[in-house]
Amino acid sequence: MVNNKEFLYLGYYRAASGKVILKIGTTSDLKRRAQEHTSHYKKILNEPIADGEKFNYLWHTRLTHDNTLKYEKSNRNSLKIALNGAKYLKNDRFILENLPETVEITIRKRYIIPVCAKIK
Predict the structure, then answer these.
(1) What is the distance of C-alpha 91 from the center of its chain?
(2) Sequence-separated (6 or more) residues with CB below 8 Å from residue 58
């Protein structure tokens, strides 16, 4: 039997500029995806990951594949509004000038994810 469950996640990394980059996404393997993000974001031109830093998760939940895509899209759009002043980058990333205390993800119920407390 094939397991078609995936994770919807909210993660971050500290960029070489010192800014925090928040990312929403989906994956079937959290550990592998974090390693891929860490490796890939070292090579990008726009807000690359700082030396010695890695991609970290703030929150994740497991859903069906179709639901991860649906909720990723709706929450990405909500984050664009909620993080006013945050510049949106391709690949579902947000440059945070100021860290919010919390962000909200809604999937049938509201999840309040602490940001300031988890990002040092």
Answers:
(1) 10
(2) 10, 11, 12, 113, 114, 115, 118, 119
Predicted confidence (pLDDT) at residue 70 exceeds the cutoff of 50: yes
Supply the pLDDT for residue 91: 83
DSSP structure string for the chain: ----EEEEEEEEEEBTTS-EEEEEEEES-HHHHHHHHHHHTTT-SSSPBPTT---EEEEEEEEEHHHHHHHHHHHHHHHHHHTTTPEEETTTEEEESS--SEEEEEESEEEEEESTTT--
- The whole-model pTM stands at 0.92
- Sign of the alpha-carbon torsion through 7, 118, 43, 81: positive
Closest CA to 92 of 83, 119, 101: 83
How far is C-alpha 59 from the geometric centre of its chain's CA atoms? 8
Q: Could you tell me the CA-to-CA distances from 98 to 72, 77, 118 in Å, in that order?
A: 23, 19, 14
Q: Work out the pLDDT band at 2, boundaries 50, 70, 90.
A: low
